[in-house]
UniProtKB/TrEMBL annotation:
It comes from the Eukaryota. It comes from Rosa chinensis (China rose). Keywords: Repeat. InterPro entries: PPR_rpt, TPR-like_helical_dom_sf. This is Putative pentatricopeptide. PPR repeats lie at residues 25-59, 60-94, 95-129. It holds the Pfam family PPR_3. Belongs to the PPR family. P subfamily.
Length: 138
């Protein structure tokens, strides 16, 4: 459903939902944010994330990975890194998927230093498999 939906007018839709007594939860917000990010509508995605926080709902790993994906897809790696850093500050532990999004983004812009830094961070977090049959790291 989210892949086909029109995500413009998020505020209107959320107002209508509230009027009918439906209170959006973390999953509704995050699904909507993910759809907006897939469409490249980052302004609305961040507006909705801010509304989510204002409503007292904390973004989770999926919320952050969606925002990072949206930014990285547009080549906005400085902003993607800022969202990643904010995620870490809030105590949310990144997984391989989030690191993969960042690594692909940095690869696309040719930033080998950032890629190596992320690889080191993954290793520190135990997200890199090492020591296979004498052929080095994998």
């Amino acid at each position: 459903m989210c892949k086909e939906a029109n995500f413009s007018g998020v505020e209107t839709i959320f107002s209508e939902m509230s009027e009918t007594g439906f209170i959006p939860d973390k999953y509704v917000y995050t699904s909507w944010i993910a759809g907006l990010c897939r469409q490249g509508n980052l302004v609305e995605a961040f507006r909705l994330k801010n509304k989510m926080v204002k409503e007292g709902i904390s973004p989770d790993l999926f919320t952050y990975s969606s925002l990072i994906f949206g930014l990285a897809s547009k080549g906005l790696m400085v902003e993607a890194q800022q969202v990643f850093d904010d995620m870490l500050k809030r105590g949310i532990t990144p997984d391989r998927h989030v690191f993969g999004i960042l690594i692909r983004g940095y690869y696309d812009e040719g930033n080998d230093v950032a890629i190596l830094g992320l690889h080191d961070e993954m290793r520190k977090r135990g997200l890199v498999i090492t020591g296979g049959k004498g052929d080095g790291e994998h």
